[in-house]
C-alpha cells in the first residue's frame, strides 16, 4: 500500500489525501504558502484546469502556457516553480497522492505521461463534463467529513475523462507499442541512476534494439539513449534545486556518472548552461 505523501495540513478530507482550489475556495494562507518557497519538488499529483483566461506554469524548467479548456498536470518528483502572478479569471486546481490514487478501481496510463505532454486540450462537450465533475468535487471537499467513497467515485470519473483525452490524438499508435513504451519509461525510472544499457532494456522488454529504438522514437521523438540522457539532466536539475550546496562530483556520482567532467560537459550540451551558471541563476 502506498504511503501518504500529501502534506497532511493541506488535505480537505479526514480520510483522503486530496485538496481542491478554485478562485473562491481552498486557498492556503500567505504564511503557509511562503514555507514552500519559489520552487517545489512535488510529492503528489497536481492538476490545473482553466475555465477562462490563461496561466503560465513552469515544470522542470519548461514554461507551459495554459489557456481556456486546457488542463495542465504535473507528477510526483517533478519540480514546479510557483507562479509569480495569479491565474486570470477562473480555474480549478486539484492535488492528491499515490495513496489516494491506489484506492481507485483502475489504473490511468496517462499518469506515466508516455507521450511527454503535460497539457491537454478539451473540446467544449468534454470540457463541460470535466467542469461538472470538478464542481461536484469542489462541493464534496467543502466538508472534511464527507464520504470518501463518494469523493473517490468522482475522482475516478475525472481521471477517466482526462485519460481518454490524453490519448485521443494518438489512436494511430498501436496498443502493443504503447505498452512497450510504458514499460521502457518505467524501467528507466526504476533504474535511472544505474544508467542501464539499451541492450539490457531491450532484453527486459523482449524486443530487439532496433524495435526499441523505433518505439521510443515514435512516442517521444528521441532515441532511447537521448531519452535517458534528457531524463538524467532533468533529475540533475531537480536535485540542484533541492540542495544548492551539492558539488558537481557529488551530483555526478549520485546520478551514476563515473567522470564528473563528462557529466559537466553533457549538462552544458543539453541545457546550454554550465552547472555553475545554473547554480548562480538559482541564487538570484
UniProtKB/TrEMBL annotation:
Keyword Transcription assigned: yes
Pfam families per the UniProt record, alphabetical: HTH_18
GO MF term set: DNA-binding transcription factor activity; sequence-specific DNA binding
Signal peptide interval: none
Record bears the keyword Repeat: no
UniProt keyword annotations, A-Z: DNA-binding, Transcription, Transcription regulation
Gene3D superfamilies, per database record: Homeodomain-like (1.10.10.60)
Residue ranges of every copy of the HTH araC/xylS-type domain listed in the record: 182-281
Entry-linked InterPro entries: Homeodomain-like_sf, HTH_AraC
PANTHER family: ARAC-FAMILY TRANSCRIPTIONAL REGULATOR, TRANSCRIPTIONAL REGULATORY PROTEIN
UniProt-recorded name of the protein: AraC-type DNA-binding protein
Organism: Olivibacter domesticus
Amino acid at each position: 500500500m502506498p504511503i501518504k505523501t500529501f502534506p497532511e495540513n493541506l488535505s480537505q478530507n479526514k480520510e483522503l489525501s486530496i485538496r481542491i482550489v478554485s478562485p473562491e475556495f481552498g486557498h492556503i494562507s500567505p504564511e503557509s504558502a511562503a514555507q514552500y518557497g519559489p520552487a517545489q519538488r512535488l510529492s503528489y499529483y497536481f492538476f490545473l484546469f482553466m475555465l477562462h483566461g490563461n496561466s503560465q506554469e513552469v515544470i522542470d524548467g519548461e514554461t507551459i502556457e495554459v489557456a481556456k479548456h486546457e488542463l495542465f498536470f504535473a507528477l510526483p518528483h517533478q519540480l514546479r516553480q510557483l507562479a509569480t502572478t495569479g491565474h486570470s479569471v477562473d480555474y480549478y486546481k486539484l492535488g492528491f497522492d499515490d495513496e489516494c490514487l491506489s484506492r481507485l478501481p483502475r489504473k490511468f496510463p496517462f499518469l506515466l505521461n508516455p507521450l511527454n505532454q503535460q497539457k491537454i486540450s478539451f473540446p467544449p462537450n468534454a470540457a463541460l463534463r470535466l467542469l461538472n465533475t470538478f464542481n461536484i468535487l469542489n462541493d464534496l471537499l467543502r466538508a472534511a467529513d464527507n464520504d470518501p467513497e463518494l469523493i473517490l467515485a468522482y475522482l475516478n470519473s475525472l481521471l477517466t475523462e482526462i485519460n481518454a483525452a490524453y490519448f485521443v490524438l494518438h489512436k494511430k499508435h498501436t496498443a502493443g507499442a504503447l505498452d512497450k513504451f510504458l514499460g521502457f519509461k518505467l524501467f528507466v525510472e526504476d533504474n535511472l541512476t544505474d544508467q542501464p544499457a539499451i541492450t539490457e532494456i531491450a532484453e527486459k522488454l523482449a524486443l530487439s534494439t532496433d524495435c526499441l529504438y523505433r518505439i521510443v522514437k515514435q512516442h517521444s521523438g528521441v532515441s532511447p539513449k537521448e531519452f535517458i540522457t534528457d531524463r538524467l539532466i532533468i533529475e540533475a536539475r531537480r536535485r540542484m534545486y533541492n540542495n544548492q550546496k551539492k558539488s558537481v562530483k557529488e551530483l555526478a556520482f549520485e546520478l551514476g556518472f563515473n567522470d564528473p567532467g563528462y557529466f559537466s560537459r553533457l549538462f552544458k550540451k543539453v541545457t546550454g548552461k554550465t552547472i555553475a551558471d545554473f547554480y548562480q541563476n538559482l541564487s538570484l
